[in-house]
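Colleagues,

For the teaching module next term, I've prepared a clean inverse folding example: a structure given as tokens, and then the sequence designed for it. I'd like students to try predicting residues themselves before seeing the answer, so please don't circulate the second half yet.
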């Protein structure tokens, strides 16, 4: 585990990163072209979303062939070149592994449909109930029932996600063997990291039962057998290699399970993503709503995961942004009035915590949610469904669009903003998703020339490498009831690091516990000019500051 504590991982969305052939879709060649930029930022590893052959019903998370690169992204030779050139810059690659389901266009599913018993046992296929109704009353996470007719057999296959994504039967040892073979194939190619998509839902029971309404997720999430299978996968694939970094995407998981997945003594994964902190602006747990974020809930969740995972020797993946989340600066700050302060405050809050920080493409230059005014400008199927539902629920077009603008997955999937030219320098063609209007003043070229956000990220990455207290210190939350400041202390040996982040756009005065202000305090890093540490502190709009206490 020691090998990952000072690492920082950069997530790029290949489709939107950089297009070199003018077809409007980012490609592998485009990533190779920007390696110098990523090296300059200082990151250690690139995680990219799936680039396998896929009908793209769910942006590549519906895989037809795990061994082939989709021609829209390039060729296997280009991928090999990317691995090689990245290695020369000490940048490793993390591949996205989607092992809960395949596309129904996958050869296994097609052979199952054609009647091959062996492959029918690769999926979760069940007869209807005696009264002719579906095998269970489960809902798909994309809406509608989780069962679809399996050809004309009269039986049904399970799909927890899109109807074209058939869940694999992990109870079949043959299936597990095939999946580990895939992981080993990419290890051989030189991948040194893996992100496992929705890994904690692979453990469905032998006998599937109806949900009683509120327990549905528990019927297939974090079941005990998942840990056995992850240990088996570790043993049969990446665990046999030195220093491989793995992260599991864990939907609706708990701290207890997070520990089990990521405690190094258990030989499962290096770390996990959990998402509870990104639901604090959901009204009554409902995503498609327009309410201010609950700051105390945000703090409480981050603190619970920091303290809880530490206690059990687990490890957190730290992040605000990814390809499924709106931009954090638009969400938790004010990128209009305080673009630099918001971006750097959020970055510092995450980067100085215990865990491994992830940077999502564009956050290092302050990219924001785009201001699209019509639903036709969005591609994401979930957003279109939500728009329909909101209109049916009686919302006006304007009201519905206000919510879509804040919550759509496309807000983070828009093309990377490289310069102020047409299409932000992303493509010479027509981009697959519209470029944001603010790309003329928020872009890499301008940021590298005169910006302050990118250098701040460089500094945070450097500090993690230079300071064991950041990479490996303990965590303790303080001032947990304070309504505007998120504060915590990292500690290693005789050293303490105090981090104070102000989440609002006004000046704010508060009192620090005396134990922190009697010590010798050295200002380490902050997004305003240097200030002394005092008992009575005033933080300015979106100010963040860290002090070393001897």
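(Answer key — instructors only)
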């Amino acid at each position: 585990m020691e090998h990952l504590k000072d690492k920082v991982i950069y997530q790029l969305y290949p489709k939107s990163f950089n297009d070199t052939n003018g077809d409007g879709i980012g490609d592998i060649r485009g990533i190779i072209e920007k390696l110098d930029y990523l090296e300059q930022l200082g990151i250690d590893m690139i995680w990219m979303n799936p680039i396998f052959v896929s009908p793209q019903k769910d942006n590549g998370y519906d895989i037809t062939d795990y061994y082939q690169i989709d021609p829209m992204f390039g060729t296997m030779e280009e991928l090999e070149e990317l691995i090689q050139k990245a290695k020369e810059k000490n940048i490793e690659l993390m591949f996205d592994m989607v092992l809960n389901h395949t596309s129904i266009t996958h050869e296994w599913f097609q052979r199952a449909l054609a009647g091959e018993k062996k492959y029918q046992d690769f999926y979760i296929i069940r007869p209807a109930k005696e009264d002719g109704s579906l095998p269970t009353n489960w809902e798909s996470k994309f809406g509608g029932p989780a069962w679809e007719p399996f050809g004309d057999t009269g039986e049904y296959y399970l799909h927890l996600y899109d109807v074209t994504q058939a869940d694999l039967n992990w109870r079949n040892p043959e299936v597990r063997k095939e999946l580990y073979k895939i992981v080993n194939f990419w290890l051989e190619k030189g991948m040194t990291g893996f992100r496992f998509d929705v890994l904690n839902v692979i453990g469905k029971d032998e006998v599937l039962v109806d949900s009683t309404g509120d327990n549905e997720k528990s019927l297939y999430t974090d079941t005990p057998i998942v840990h056995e299978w992850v240990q088996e996968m570790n043993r049969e694939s990446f665990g046999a290699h030195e220093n491989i970094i793995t992260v599991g995407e864990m939907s609706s998981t708990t701290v207890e399970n997070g520990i089990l997945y990521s405690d190094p003594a258990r030989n499962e994964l290096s770390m996990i993503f959990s998402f509870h902190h990104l639901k604090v602006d959901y009204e009554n747990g409902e995503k498609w709503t327009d309410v201010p974020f609950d700051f105390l809930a945000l703090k409480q969740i981050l603190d619970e995961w920091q303290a809880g995972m530490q206690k059990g020797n687990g490890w957190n993946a730290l992040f605000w942004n990814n390809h499924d989340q709106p931009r954090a600066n638009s969400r938790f700050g004010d990128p209009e009035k305080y673009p630099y302060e918001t971006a750097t405050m959020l970055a510092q809050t995450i980067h100085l915590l215990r865990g491994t920080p992830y940077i999502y493409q564009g956050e290092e230059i302050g990219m924001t949610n785009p201001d699209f005014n019509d639903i036709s400008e969005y591609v994401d199927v979930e957003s279109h469904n939500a728009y329909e539902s909101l209109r049916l629920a009686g919302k006006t077009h304007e009201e519905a669009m206000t919510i879509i603008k804040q919550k759509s997955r496309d807000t983070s999937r828009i093309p990377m903003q490289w310069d102020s030219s047409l299409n932000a320098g992303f493509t010479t063609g027509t981009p697959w998703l519209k470029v944001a209007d603010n790309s003329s003043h928020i872009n890499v070229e301008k940021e590298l020339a005169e910006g302050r956000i990118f250098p701040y990220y460089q500094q945070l990455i450097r500090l993690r490498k230079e300071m064991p207290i950041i990479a490996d210190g303990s965590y303790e939350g303080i001032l947990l009831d304070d309504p505007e400041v998120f504060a915590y202390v990292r500690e290693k040996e005789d050293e303490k690091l105090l981090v104070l982040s102000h989440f609002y756009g006004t000046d704010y005065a508060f009192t620090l516990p005396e134990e922190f202000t009697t010590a010798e305090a050295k200002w380490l890093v902050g997004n305003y000019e240097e200030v002394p540490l005092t008992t009575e502190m005033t933080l300015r709009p979106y100010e963040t500051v860290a002090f070393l206490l001897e």
